[in-house]
Specification:
With 254 residues, the chain is of the alpha+beta class. 46% of the residues lie in helices and 12% in strands. The chain has one domain. It is globular. The structure holds heme C.
């Protein structure tokens, strides 16, 4: 009996190991379809990516300014609708977009649409009374805005971080490289961009460092490993440290 078991195990093992080794591997070749919709001229690639990144960073700050109200358990309806948010966001961005080309304006309009929709989608969550933390903060708004912006443009936005909390912010190889240079540079880190290939598509990749300010430290600060109010282990950073970056990938016309 023992022998039969061992023999069958012998035949089973290599087959099993092989099947497991074939699972979870990225398909080879092909074309990342999500990059098709909007393509920018090479000469406008940098400024387009920069505008998108600035708009996301500004939207994050507009929401950040409301966090006290949004986490007040005594309030039901917060009145911070997609429209209210979008008006504040647009006002804060006006100067940034003055020189936008018609192509860029079309892309920005889609980003404004996505950002407003992201806020509208969170109204039920935000207007719950009696709960302080409702799983909404600037990084989540930017992540969900990026999803809808991507579905209408093909442009990819991410917020990779040193210790990322959301799995979709796991940095890829290039982002790890740039992020470690930004971390070394600390408060001196400057945005950078470069042309690259994504599958068969030429893209412009832009990276803008995200620095921490004092109020972020409640969750991302010290002591490292201590649980923050949401149950995540704190990252151990100080104000001024680079925690992550806004990553923008825009397809470029051939
Ligand atoms: C209340 C705790 C809390 C505070 C305060 C906070 N964050 Fe976060 N941060 C989170 C959580 C939770 C996520 C994941 C959000 C998501 O995508 O759903 C996150 C995500 C991020 C990300 C994206 C990477 C990732 O972890 O997925 C960055 C970048 C970031 N935060 C920077 C900041 C900055 C800058 C500040 C201050 C302006 C700040 N955070 C304040 C909890 C916090």
């Amino acid at each position: 009996m023992k022998k039969i078991l061992l023999v069958s195990l012998f035949f089973l093992m290599p087959w099993y190991a092989n099947a497991e080794g074939d699972i979870g591997i990225a398909a080879k070749g092909g074309f990342p379809e999500y990059l098709f919709l909007e393509k920018v001229k090479e000469s406008e690639a940098h400024s387009t990516a920069e505008m998108i990144s600035k708009a996301l960073a500004t939207g994050r700050m507009v929401i950040f300014a409301q966090m006290g109200k949004l986490t007040d358990p005594a309030l039901g309806d917060k009145g911070f609708t997609g429209d209210v948010f979008a008006n504040q966001w647009k006002a804060a961005l006006e100067a940034e977009f003055m020189d936008a080309s018609p192509d860029q304006q079309r892309i920005i309009d889609k980003l404004l649409w996505a950002g407003k929709l992201s806020m509208d989608n969170n109204q039920d969550r935000l207007n719950v009374k009696g709960v302080k933390w409702k799983h909404f903060l600037p990084a989540k708004w930017a992540r969900e805005t990026g999803l809808m912006f991507n579905s209408r443009t093909g442009i990819v936005t991410k917020q990779p971080a040193v210790n990322y909390r959301h799995p979709s912010n796991a940095p890829d190889q290039k982002e790890i490289e740039v992020l470690s240079a930004f971390v070394d540079a600390g408060s001196e880190a400057k945005p950078k961009g470069e042309f690259a290939m994504m599958g068969k598509q030429r893209v412009y990749r832009y990276f803008d460092p995200i620095m921490l300010i004092q109020p972020c430290l409640a969750c991302h600060g010290k002591p490292k490993g201590e649980l923050d109010m949401l149950g995540f282990q704190k990252d151990g950073f100080d104000a001024g440290d680079v925690i992550g970056l806004i990553s923008v990938s825009v397809a470029v016309e051939e």
